[in-house]
Design goal:
The longest helix has 19 residues. This protein is 36% helix and 16% strand. It contains ten helices and twelve strands. Strand 1 and strand 2 form a beta hairpin. It has a five-stranded mixed β-sheet, sandwiched between helices. It has a five-stranded mixed β-sheet with strand order 4-9-8-7-6, with helices on one face. A two-stranded antiparallel sheet has the order 11-12. Helix 7 crosses helix 8. The chain has 331 residues and is an alpha+beta fold. It has one domain: L,D-transpeptidase catalytic domain-like (Beta Barrel), CATH 2.40.440.
Length: 331
Amino acid sequence: MIRTRFNFAIVAALAVGLASCNSSVLDIDTRGQQPIPAKLAGEMSKKSMTASSPVLVRIFKQESEIEVWKRDKSGRFAHLKTWPLCRWSGKLGPKKKIGDRQAPEGFYQVAASQLNPQSQYYLSFNLGFPNRLEKAQGFTGEALMVHGACSSSGCYAMTDDGVAEVYAVVRDALKGGQGSFQVQAFPFRMTAKNMAEHRDDPNFAFWTDLKRGYDIFEATKREPRVSFCEGRYMFDREVDPAAPPADPMAACAPAATMDEPAVAMRTTAEQQAMEKLMASTPVTAHAYVDGGMHSSFRALLKRGGEKALAKRTSLKSVPVSRPEAALADPH
């Protein structure tokens, strides 16, 4: 009886101690199990989507936005919702090494094992950087996440409320049988105009490769099949069955014909538009000090400092990273 009372006292004291922190034991145990908010679930229903239907995520640095798409009854992906990003770090361009503060750009697959319901940034999921292509190129880095709060050192931070919604949607899709979901991380929306404005950037060839995958999705609303060949992203290629599965340079068989007319039409139209714009659109000068922040959050930060932003972002334990740099976001 004495031992039982002693154990109960320890548990009670621990509960009181944790109650003064940002997360209680109850929060830690349940925050990853929060249901999809009713309003968002209603939007899914209106768009003929279910909680268990497959999901796809797109991230745009320049616009500081993250999109979630879900497959509807047509069998294609449809846009569900766009959330503002509170913070990303680095500049436009891919991540190459640990410590460069670059948020990744590329195509990634996220499985259930990469979801973290006990993240110090509320909730998170690991993008899986470096992927096979990035490993082959010698790129280094680890634990590159989409997470809560408004602090970034190579991650995409979208506030606790924002990540809670996204986390619930992708978690339920994985529970519904989707083995992993694709994340497409881009420097900007890969429009002909944006490409023309960035044509002198050293990363333009890399972005041209990313745009092929972007255009396939835009034209077909299906997930592009990603492979690698000669150090580049390749899409909708038939993988050589005789090639070693770990060889990122082996998927160079002839292109598949899936949705070829729609993709070809999109590709031709975009190339013609880009060539026309290159003749008249000035080159954009990059002025990122260290990453960016969505205009809605930047307005709060500019108007009232971190305290004003804290009212929207649960920043009690994780302050805004490099707020001066966030205010210098040229977009």
